[in-house]
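chain below, 216 aa
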Amino acid sequence: MRFRSRARSRFGQAFLLLNKGCMDLRRATSVTKIIAAVLSILGVVGCGGVPVVPPDLQQKIERDVSFQQIKDSPLSYKGQFVVVGGTVLSVKPLKQNGTQIEVLQLPLASDYEPQGRLTDSHGRFLAFHKEFLDPATIPTGTRVTVVGEVTGSTTQMLDEVEYAYPTIDIASLTVWPPKLPAFWFHPYPYFGAYWGPYWGPYWGPPHWSPYGLRRR
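prediction:
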């Protein structure tokens, strides 16, 4: 059983952007990349750069099977290995030395990192880890990618309705570092008497000035 954390470092590229002084509004997205890179470096735990799908499982993965297909007919894919991911909704230790992870499915990027908005989800699934995982280590909102075997489905109560969850036994679990929120940028820069471009709305990134980074 594999349980890992993953981070992708863009620190070198971010450092070059800083040296070039690319702080105009056209390059504003570089600011968030720089901050994200630094936070990723600080938050690295475990083996960064390790493939999401372990080498011994590469040949077992059914890459043409979508989550929607699994959700519509979970028993048809029972015993098959798939890669699915999303954001954690809950983590529940089980009495029989295991852990149940409830995940809201999200689309996966080419590197298997969950992406997109919550409204892009096709539903929920339950992933089962054979060992105990402390819920505090995988809090709600954590993005995960699961490599595992489809075992069928189970029906549980979701508020006041019955919900059929596809179930997957985890062979490998990747926990991704948190992402910074997407800032809402104004369509044009506002130059004050002493400040550089103003980005908003009100909770956005700090002002940039020729003398360094200042906060409102």
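Residues 99 and 129 are 5 Å apart (CA to CA). The chain has a mean pLDDT of 75.
thats it, cya
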